[in-house]
UniProtKB/TrEMBL annotation:
It is a multi-pass membrane protein. Keywords: Electron transport, Iron, Membrane, Metal-binding, Mitochondrion, Mitochondrion inner membrane, Oxidoreductase, Respiratory chain, Transit peptide, Transmembrane, Transmembrane helix, Transport. The keyword Zinc does not apply. Its EC number is 1.10.3.11. The keyword Disulfide bond does not apply. This is Ubiquinol oxidase. The lineage of its organism: Eukaryota, Viridiplantae, Streptophyta, Embryophyta, Tracheophyta. Its cofactor is Fe cation. It catalyses: 2 a ubiquinol + O2 = 2 a ubiquinone + 2 H2O.
Length: 280
C-alpha cells in the first residue's frame, strides 16, 4: 500500500512538473522543521484533491501529539526521543592515555585541532556545525560494523549497536540545532563535504583495524568538543556572540524552558559530549 501511494504521488507530481523527493534525494530543502508541502496526487481516492504530506518519502505519516495534546511539528524526532540533559557530569575529567593506541589516538586528535582553530578562529557557531557533522559519523560507522558482525556470527551485540546509533542520532540533532543559529558560508559547507568524506573512510578503516583505537579517537574528539563549547560559552558571557533565544527544535528535543537561550543550548550540548566521551 505504501509503495502504491508513493508511486501515485510521484507520478502525479511528475505530471504537474513539481519537484519531489525521488529515491531519497530531495529536490527541495529538507522538512526537518516540520514544514508541510502539498503534493497533487491524481490517483488519490478523493478524486485528486490536495493531500498534505510531511514525511521524507512524501507519504502522510501518523498524527503525533505532545503530552499536552498539541500537535507535534518535528519530523526528525518524536516526543518519546526527547530528554533532559544531565548537567551534573564532570566536564573536566580527562582519560589519560596509557597504551600506545591511547597515545596514538590522543595525538591524532590534537593534530587536527590546529587547522580547525586557524580556519574557524572564533566563529564558534560554524565551528560547532563542522564538529557535529564529523562527530555524527563514528556512531553510525561503529553501529553498522557491529550490526554486520552480529549477523555474520549469529550473536547478540550486547546492546552496543543501539548505543552507538543513538549516539550518532544525538550528534545529528546537535547539527540540526546549530544550523538554526549559524549561517555557514559556501566554502564552509564545501569543507564539511570534504572533511566528512575523508573522515568517514579513515574511521571505517580504523575501526576494521582496531575498534579500541577508533573509540579512543572519538573519546578524545569529545574532549576537544567540550573545550570548544566551553570557549563558546565564554564568548557568549562576554557578549562577543549574541545570546539569542534558543531554537524551537532545541527546546523540544532537550525539554528546555520556553524562555531558554543559546547559552542554555550550548550547556546541554556540552553535557552530551561529556557523556559520549566517557562511553567511548
Amino acid at each position: 500500500t505504501t509503495a502504491g501511494r508513493l508511486f501515485s504521488a510521484v507520478k502525479g507530481a511528475a505530471a504537474e512538473g513539481e519537484k519531489f523527493p525521488v529515491m531519497g534525494v530531495r529536490w527541495r530543502s529538507s522538512l526537518t522543521l516540520g514544514e508541510k508541502e502539498e503534493v497533487n496526487n491524481k490517483n488519490s481516492e478523493d478524486g485528486g484533491n490536495k493531500e498534505v504530506v510531511a514525511s521524507y518519502w512524501g507519504i502522510k505519516g501518523e498524527e503525533v501529539k505532545k503530552e499536552d495534546g498539541t500537535p507535534w511539528k518535528w519530523n526528525c524526532f518524536r516526543p518519546w526521543e526527547t530528554y533532559q540533559a544531565d548537567l551534573t557530569i564532570d566536564l573536566k575529567k580527562h582519560h589519560v592515555p596509557t597504551t600506545f593506541l591511547d597515545k596514538l589516538a590522543y595525538w591524532t586528535v590534537k593534530s587536527l585541532r590546529f587547522p580547525t582553530d586557524v580556519f574557524f578562529q572564533r566563529r564558534y557557531g560554524c565551528r560547532a556545525m563542522m564538529l557535529e557533522a564529523v562527530a555524527a559519523v563514528p556512531g553510525m560507522v561503529g553501529g553498522m560494523l557491529l550490526h554486520c558482525k552480529s549477523l555474520r556470527r549469529f550473536e547478540h551485540s550486547g546492546g552496543w549497536i543501539k548505543t552507538l546509533l543513538d549516539e550518532a542520532e544525538n550528534e545529528r540533532m546537535h547539527l540540526m540545532t546549530f544550523m538554526e543559529v549559524s549561517q555557514p558560508r559556501w566554502y564552509e559547507r564545501a569543507l564539511v563535504f570534504t572533511v566528512q568524506g575523508v573522515f568517514f573512510n579513515a574511521y571505517f578503516l580504523a575501526y576494521l583495524a582496531s575498534p579500541k583505537l577508533a573509540h579512543r579517537v572519538v573519546g578524545y574528539l569529545e574532549e576537544e568538543a567540550i573545550h570548544s563549547y566551553t570557549e563558546f560559552l565564554k564568548e557568549l558571557d562576554k557578549g562577543t556572540i549574541e545570546n539569542v533565544p534558543a531554537p524551537a527544535i532545541a527546546i523540544d528535543y532537550w525539554r528546555l524552558p520556553a524562555d531558554s537561550t543559546l547559552r542554555d543550548v550550548v550547556m546541554v550540548v556540552r553535557a552530551d559530549e561529556a557523556h559520549h566521551r566517557d562511553v567511548n
